Amino acid sequence: MPSRGTGAPPEVSADPPAAAVAHGSSADRPSGRLRPGAALAVGSTLLAGAVTALPLLFSARFYYLDDTQNQGMGSMHLIGRLIRSGELTSVMSQLGAGGNLAVDPQYGLFFPPKLAMSVFVSLFDDVNLAAILIMGFFNLVLCLGVALLLRHAGAGTLLALAAAGSIATSGFLFVWGTNWQPSLWSYALLPWLWLCLERRNTAISIAGVALITWLIVGFAFPFATVAAAGLCLAWFLARLLARREPFLALLPKALAAAGGALVGAIAYLPLAASIDWTVRQSVVTNSGTLVPNLTELLLSSSPVSSSEIYFWGGQVAGSPIMYLGWFLLPIVALVDWRAVRWRSTLLPTAVVFSVVILLLTQLPSDF
Fold it and tell me: How far, in Å, CA of 262 to CA of 225, rounded?
């Protein structure tokens, strides 16, 4: 080595320090773990696959029963075949009273995504397999949407995926969604609508509100449309009450939601035009059918109480919410309430949305 005082630069060894050899350079060594976005996508995919596959262990036709078998998949297969052969018409006299395909908005004659799904179903000789694949896709849409929404709110990846799994396996979507698939198709899009509403005003988020609203209304499951309207109303009210944004800043997304709903409502125009000559109930009654009893909901935590709901035909079906309080009470005790972001925009919207939905559940369903 050169002696001190010569002015020559110190000699630098070409070998890396021992510590760097032992632990690796931060720039060169692989992280060994997925990025949060990739982890969320992989986790949601695996979760959706597990949710979809679980009931198939007990029934190979779990997704091809009741109305899905009697009408849903069969009508999609027929319409898809007619599209591929160039023979689709709005009225098929050979089907009798059910041959006016334009009147039922769920046939999707004026809704391109539903027509594309019908073409997909028509490619399968095994319609049960087509039903499984479609449900798996929308389970993925639901799980990923919930996980992204909660990550946007500040939740960790594991907690976001756990919440997505709990919602995807809830009785309403997990059981009824198999009997009438448009319910899952529509509700799976609600978290995406909420996410677009919560994000700052950009061309992508505003267009996302319009697109997703169009999809929800176009899939023609009316209860999901009402829920989407309630969500938009809750978001609007929560933002106004928080006074964080001027009224004009909320208008772009409000107008986008209204515009998307109007375009999706095109599917309902033939139904509206048929009111004068079709048979339907002309009055609204309040018999309590399909209206959840709030007392039963509160009693659901009791080990000796089975909550019930008045079903079609006067039947009373037990609802699968036994011991609900046994899960809620530990959660209340274990949550670190000091860490809750009370001033986040997501929480006020969730509170207002819950109140709106609770009120809507008590409205008459006989109309």
Answer: 12
